[in-house]
Design goal:
With 51 residues, the chain is mostly helical. The protein contains 4 helices and no strands. The longest helix has 15 residues.
Length: 51
């Protein structure tokens, strides 16, 4: 498991992009949250992220 700060940061990122509730995100298994983070990051070209 990872630190609470990281968990909340990841949850906020997922919530922002998918418009899910915090509870729904926290109910996910760690591997499922990691998968979602990877998928969301793939939606944005690197140039947009760095700007």
């Amino acid at each position: 498991m990872y630190a609470e700060d990281r968990l909340l940061s990841d949850a906020a990122y997922i919530a922002h992009n998918l418009h899910w509730s915090l509870g729904s995100i926290l109910d996910l298994e760690h591997r499922d949250r990691e998968f979602l983070l990877t998928q969301i990051e793939s939606w944005y070209p690197a140039e947009e992220v760095e700007a």
